[in-house]
Specification:
By secondary structure, the protein is of the alpha/beta class. It is built from 14 helices and seven strands. The protein has helices spanning about 25-30, 45-55, 60-80, 100-105, 110-120, 135-145, 160-170, 195-200, 205-225, 235-240, 245-255, 265-270, 300-315, 315-330, and strands at about 10-15, 125-130, 145-155, 180, 185-190, 230-235, 340. The protein has a five-stranded mixed sheet with strand order 2-1-3-6-7, sandwiched between helices. Strands 4-5 form a two-stranded antiparallel ribbon. Helix 2 runs antiparallel to helix 3, helix 3 (about 60-80) crosses helix 6 and helix 9 (about 205-225) packs parallel to helix 14. The radius of gyration is 20 Å and the shape is globular.
Length: about 350
């Protein structure tokens, strides 16, 4: 059996969600909280969880790597190693406060004293992930009480353009999703159980059913996480941008950490709270490359109908009906309203 001995005891926070849920709005807010490091986008956590989900790696190997990598990543944070300074990245310095301290750390100490600082002050590792909650059993095993998952969800209609653009470029060299080779075609890991349908679907149908399937997986996973008494906070994009103060209070209580004194500056930068859901799309965060365009209307109903029309033009009737069922489920409390799984 492989095993990681003498693990750190600090919190390991995952800011998670499907592609297009708006989790990049939350990440810098969490990063600015007391004792939390700037968010990292490190896909190794997702990859290991997916490989376990697909039965492609031994559990002890995944568990050991998850533990080693979280501790190593946080150690590297504290000594200024592997810090992202790309100006336009969501994990870069532009939208993250306290960037100066990461520069200073590059000239600071290293060694056992850093590990002691991490543990004594509970300096939280902060990872921004994609769809990791759906395959989170290895995280629960590896991190136990250290684990805290903040799951961002969003109304399905507003996610489709993002998914359509993503799946339109799915065969490109710059696409790094773990995928299967099925009859010579590339199939994303989450579609393993419906791979026959995937390779025959249009891009729109793939987009709709990907969202449907991953939300169904999320339902199941949230039930499991609740049974394990895992620490999970689900926030809806709609509540977060329209009722921001309430969401900030939930974040503060969930993480048991105070917000930064720069919180108002961060909120202004993120253009929240908003009067309209589609306001404030930040092109420098990458949404523009996935088909997002800033709304030219102040009428939310008209914006919603434009998204719906885009879907209806290309969707097959059977998948459209399933998607409409998901919309109804999303709109019904308490399935996707803000809650914490205790």
């Amino acid at each position: 059996m492989l095993k990681k001995f003498n693990c750190c005891t600090n919190d390991v926070i995952f800011v998670d969600g499907l592609w297009g849920t708006g989790k990049s709005l939350i990440a810098p807010i969490v990063s600015a909280m007391e004792g939390v490091e700037k968010q990292k986008i490190e896909h190794i956590y997702e990859y290991l969880c997916v490989l376990i989900f697909l039965n492609k790696i031994e559990e002890d190997a995944a568990d050991t790597l998850l533990k080693i990598y979280a501790d190593l990543s946080q150690y590297n944070n504290l000594i200024g190693r592997e810090v992202n300074f790309r100006w336009h990245d969501s994990s870069g310095p532009r939208i993250n406060p306290n960037s100066l301290r990461y520069i200073q750390r590059m000239f600071g100490q290293e060694g056992d004293a850093i590990i002691e600082e991490i543990n004594e002050n509970n300096l939280a590792l902060n990872v921004m992930s994609h769809t990791i909650a759906q395959v989170s059993k290895p995280l629960v095993k590896a991190y136990g009480n250290r684990l805290k998952i903040i799951e961002m969800v969003r109304h399905p209609v507003y996610m489709v353009r993002h998914w359509y653009s993503y799946l339109s470029r799915f065969d490109s060299e710059r696409e790094f999703t773990i995928s299967l080779d099925y009859e010579g075609q590339k199939v994303p890991w989450y579609a393993e159980s419906w791979k026959n349908e995937f390779i025959r679907m249009s891009i729109m149908d793939r987009s709709l059913y990907s969202i449907i399937h991953l939300y169904d997986l999320l339902f199941e996973s949230l039930d499991y996480l609740a049974e394990q008494n895992a620490k999970v906070l689900v926030l809806s994009f709609e509540s977060f941008v329209m009722e921001t103060e309430d969401s900030l209070e939930k974040l503060q209580k969930f993480l048991d950490r105070s917000h930064s004194n720069k919180i108002n500056t961060i909120l202004k930068q993120q253009k929240i709270p908003r009067k309209q859901l589609s306001q404030g799309l930040n092109q420098f965060l990458g949404q523009a490359s996935y088909g997002w365009k800033k709304s030219e209307t102040n009428f939310e109903q008209e914006e919603y109908e434009n998204y719906l029309e885009f879907i209806q033009k290309e969707a097959s009737e059977n998948y459209l009906q399933e998607f409409e069922s998901l919309i109804s489920k999303y709109n019904l409390p308490p399935q996707f309203k803000d809650f914490a799984a205790k």
